[in-house]
Design brief:
Number of helices: 7
Structural class: mainly alpha
Order of helices and strands: HHHHHHH
Distance between the termini: 42 Å
Helix content: over 70%
Radius of gyration: 19 Å
Number of strands: 0
Oligomer: single chain
Amino acid sequence: MNWKLLAPLAILGPLMGVLVVMGAFPPGTDRFAWGLIVLASAFVVARRAPEHVVKHGFVIGMWNGATATLLQAFLVKQMLANNPWMAAKFTQAPKGFDMEFFVFMLVPFIGVTGGGMTALVGLLFRRALSRTSLEPKEKETLP
């Protein structure tokens, strides 16, 4: 495991969790920030460790997704206060619905999903980067 590669990327998940809790995103736009995080993480992993892109991509994606969701679960009251549109979505929840428990239950699912997406996108980047690195060599060998 290349910790020097993963350490700088590991700040993105907690940063995203704090930004969501603070209400930094308008309704529905946080998914675009997550998309950028997955793309950036996958690209960095594919570029610097192409032979371990699945392992490193999964670990960093799982870490980022799980830590962001865990921060949101611990700070769910502040998150709902800063994001009234989230609170409005849960006004029709059944009686006794526990928002904190719900967000805590999401942690492993979002972690695994984030890891899988980052690993998959990393594989695609590795394939694209390997093709671009082969093209000049092929041109040199042609008569």
